[in-house]
Amino acid sequence: MRVETALDTSRVEGGIGGYCAPGFELVADVFKRNFEERGELGASVSVEVGGQRVVDLWGGRQTPGGPSWSSDTIHILFSCTKAATALVLHILENDGLLDLDSPLSALWPELLAAGDRATVRMILDHSIGLPAVTVPAPSNALIDPDWMRKALEQQEPFWEPGSRVGYHALTFGFLASEVVRRVTGASLGQVFKERVAKALGIDFHIGLSEEHEPRVAPIEVWRPGSNDSETAFMKAAKQKGTIANLFVFNSGDWAVRGLNTRSGRVAEIGAANGIGNARALARLFGALANGGDELGLNPSKVASFSVASSATNRDATLQIPTRFGPGFMLGMDNRHENRGGESLIIGRNAFGHVGAGGSVGFADPEAQLGFAYTMNRQGPGLLLNSRGQSLVDATYRTLGYRSTSSGFWMN
What we know:
With about 400 residues, this protein is α+β, with helices and mostly antiparallel strands. About 30% of the residues lie in helices and about 15% in strands. The strands form three sheets. A seven-stranded antiparallel sheet has the order 1-3-2-11-10-9-8, with helices on both faces. A hairpin with a 2-residue loop joins strand 2 (about 40-50) and strand 3. It is globular and about 60 Å long. The chain starts with a helix and ends in a 13-residue tail after the last helix.
């Protein structure tokens, strides 16, 4: 069933295209409502169940009044990139080239924070203590990996590695990338392309080659308005010297001026500038939801992605409760305002990652589900906002899940 014959999309600028299998019409309807009621500009949603693609929709426009979104439109996925980066490290361990729990100092002795205790796993679960740098960052910091490496090597950890959790919003990628380089001699983007993107046949890039530039939709950055409530994270970001303040204001200007530039997309920012769409992200997580055999992964390793290796009632960066597996976000039920109101409501054993502005991709092995929603007009919030969560909810309801009262989608 072609969705354009099933939905009235006359109120959607640019229209909606793609495929929705019988039984998944609720997902298509919610996707349409995001454009009509929730301010969507351009977006895609893709769902795989049991290795079969059951939803593959795209719609809207690349810019206000500009070209329509097409089946092969791609864009920056922000922190959804972290899951792809983490996957590379897991593949290297699976191949016997890396031990996530061995001393990091043996691999990277120049890293001051490595000390006697730090491990690669602490990079993956945001507990290594390097969520920001204090040395003043130049404007091009995030597209200069040598500068970032040296700054991280000299940075005193903000806490004893492993003793606290604080989201490494940007430094995650540079720490992981350097590990990849030291183990393989190649860049993160090169290894990801060879071991993941080619293996799965996905349109996902860390460091975009020029041939793909014509297909890239620019990002429309969300900025808080006068009527938006000030979150704990926003308050912390205004306090000079806090982790949140350093992350926002001492990371150069990529997030302000570099997002929609060629130099900003060709750079390999392993925490933030992976480029693709929902189809690519859902295929990646669909492979993991079904055991990871397509990537040559041991099923027991993939099962470990669902296990929290770090959790806290107040993340040192985000200022909300967070839960992480080894490189993946896990479900976070913070719906009560005293917990920050920032949530990711997915299945109990699901794992994935959100991206700035509300994109998300995740695997749910119990449901054999690979899900992704991506868009280029950012929305508010640190985790999921109503656009992404409504699509997640519609998918779980379609699969027969009935309640989120436990904090997760349950049958």
